[in-house]
Amino acid sequence: MTIERIELPFYCVMEKNVQYGEADGIPLLLDLVYPTETPGMPIPEGLPAVIDVHGGGWELGEKGIGRGLMLALNGFFFASIDYRLTGVAPFPAQIHDVKAAIRWLRAHAEDYNVDPDRIGLTGGSAGGHLTSLAGVTGDMPELEGDSGWEGYSTKVQAVAPVNPVTDFRVSAEEYPWLHREEPVRKLFGGEMKDHPDLVALASPVAHVTGDAPPFLIIHGTADDIVEYSQSQRLYNALVEVGVEATLVSYEDSDHGLYGYSVQNWDYIMPFFKRVLGQAKNYGDPAKVSVKRFRP
């Protein structure tokens, strides 16, 4: 696969089909975008980075920059990854690939002027599940896999999942969809009751400790696919061990978050800016003062 490099307006560069790993002979690809030198300004140093993991019930979907371009325009390195879908391999292949992407980014941090100690994750639905799981299991041997770049840490510093499944261990009475739908059976290679160890391993709530990074969780209260209670479970687990957590709830909004997908960035962007910071030579925000009059 040939890497496609595209010069974008506002001094950003996009690269498409960059190989970040390989699994079972399958190349794992990502698209990325990052700010470059602006005339009269220095080349950005120590960019914070965000990796996006797409949704699609673990069986559909593909990488794409989309609104992630806004992060590049705000001084971030941004990458969107493909990963092995359940038609190719069941869990834990998907989280193995996500972690390979984190390791790839650390291995190539100097190539893109990225700060390897300031990496965040975001994703929706299945991507929200995988980013949540990666966020609370940094360097956990059982989930590292061998998709590439062994020896680099998979710990991240911020996570912003949207509509994530966070606990597969709930009962069918509490969460019927989880127990009856084909995407979940494909994820585990059969009924969840027949794979209790995998079910627990795939549940982010089961792995929460005080070492978890800050989380921003977004969910619609009327979600008809992923129960809103799933985000509440993760939020409560994080708060219980003293981890910074924010839960943004859209009242009466379903899984598609129709009408709210743009507003997500009103929360995601400030979260990553605050937690991950900005390029080292982008100016010191502590020296900026704003005076505003509102009648």
Describe the fold and architecture:
With 295 residues, the protein is α/β, with parallel strands linked by helices. The protein has one domain (4-277): Rossmann fold (3-Layer(aba) Sandwich). The chain has helices at 69-73, 93-107, 126-136, 141-144, 176-180, 182-188, 196-201, 228-240, 264-276; strands at residues 4-8, 12-23, 26-35, 47-53, 77-81, 114-124, 158-162, 215-220, 245-250. It has a nine-stranded mixed sheet, with helices on both faces. The longest helix is centred in the middle third of the chain and has 15 residues, at 93-107. The N and C termini lie far apart (58 Å). The mean pLDDT is 94.
* Portion in strands: 15-25%
CATH superfamily: Alpha/Beta hydrolase fold, catalytic domain
In N-to-C order, the SSE pattern is EEEEHEHEHHEHHHEHEH
Judging from the principal axes of the Cα atoms, what is the shape?
globular
Separation, N- and C-terminal Cα atoms:
58 Å
- What is the number of independent domains? 1
- Helix proportion of residues, in percent? 25-40%
Specify the number of helices: 9
Largest sheet: 9 strands, mixed
What would the CATH topology be?
Answer: Rossmann fold
Global Rg: 19 Å
What would CATH call the architecture? 3-Layer(aba) Sandwich
By DSSP, the count of extended strands is 9
Mean pLDDT: 94
Strand order of the largest sheet: 1-2-3-5-4-6-7-8-9
Catalogue the unreliable spans: none
